[in-house]
Each structure stands twice: as C-alpha cells, then as structure tokens.
C-alpha cells in the first residue's frame, strides 16, 4: 500500500484489543497519532498532535479515525486544506453535541463542524452504538459529504466489539482506496 494510513484514536486511546491496534500491526504504512492526554481531551491540543502527525507523514494519507477523532477530523478540516490527505474512514463518530450520548470531557469538541470535507470519506456506524444514533451518524455523513455505511449491531466498533483485524472494515478501506485511485 503506497498511502500512509494515519490511525487516529478517540477518547481513552484504542486499547490493545481494539481493531485500530490490529491495523497498526497489519498495515506496514500505518502510523498512529499520539495525544498528550487521552482521557481529558482538549481540542486545541488534539488538533496540534494531529497536525504534527500529518506534517511528518510521508506521501499521501488515508485517515482512519474512531469515535471522538471523527469530530477532531471535522474540526481540523474546517481550518486546514492540504492535498496530502486523500481520504478518510470515519468510524463510529461520537455525538459530542449530545450530553445523552457522550461524556462531559468531550464537550469542548462541540459543536461538530457540519462542512463538506475536502476529500472522499466513509462514515461507518453500528445500529446499536451507545454514543450516537444511526440517524445522527447518517446526518453527519450527509453534511460531511461522506458515503454512509451501517454495519448492523456491533456496538461502538471498539475493543468490546471484538473485531480484531476487522476484515469488513478492511474491505471498506480497500473500496475507498479504489475510488480514490479511479478519481485522482
């Protein structure tokens, strides 16, 4: 794979059994954005870490964001335009605008920017994600100009979902890469 796969975990980082960590091992071009404080996220700090990782990555970048990191990508994209990012998987976005769905420490990521992203994206959700409703995930996908995929009852698509290497997610990533190749 010629692209850098930039893994962007959400609140609390991605634990050892999270599919993002499996992907870090599986894809030789995968790199991870590391945050200063995983448990008390500050948007400004997280944006700085993301920007630093993007600047240091070589070649074209495919972002693979999970949960709170999906909002991070929308905030970053609002302020930055860079041709280096050619696509993104936005997996299990957390609804930081809803106190009923997300913890208080994520509120500084609200409001979620509702602007079309400058690169092809796929929003992936589950029908029983406790951090967002299917309708809200579909709304975000529409606003961001993303393809929307509901993969059924798989929770928050995190360690508890027991996805390991998550073949279905890899197939979606491959489809996104093929779309990018056809349209460059």
TrEMBL record:
It comes from Flavobacterium gillisiae. Pfam families: Ser_hydrolase (PF06821). This is Alpha/beta hydrolase. Gene3D superfamilies: alpha/beta hydrolase. GO terms for molecular function: hydrolase activity.
């Amino acid at each position: 794979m010629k692209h850098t796969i930039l893994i962007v975990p959400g609140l609390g980082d991605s634990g050892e059994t999270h599919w993002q960590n499996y992907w870090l091992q599986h894809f030789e071009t995968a790199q991870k954005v590391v945050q200063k404080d995983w448990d008390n996220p500050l948007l400004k700090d997280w944006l700085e870490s993301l920007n630093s990782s993007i600047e240091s990555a070589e070649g074209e970048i495919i972002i693979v964001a999970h949960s709170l990191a999906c909002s991070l990508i929308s905030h970053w994209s609002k302020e930055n335009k860079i041709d280096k990012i050619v696509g993104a998987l936005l997996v299990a976005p957390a609804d930081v605008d809803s106190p009923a769905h997300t913890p208080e420490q994520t509120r500084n990521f609200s409001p979620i920017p509702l602007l079309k992203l400058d690169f092809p994206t796929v929003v992936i959700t589950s029908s029983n994600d406790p951090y967002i409703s299917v309708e809200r995930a579909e709304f975000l996908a529409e606003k961001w100009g993303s393809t929307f995929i509901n993969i059924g009852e798989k929770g928050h698509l995190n360690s508890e979902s027991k996805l390991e290497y998550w073949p279905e997610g890899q197939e979606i990533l491959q489809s996104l890469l093929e779309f990018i190749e056809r349209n460059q």
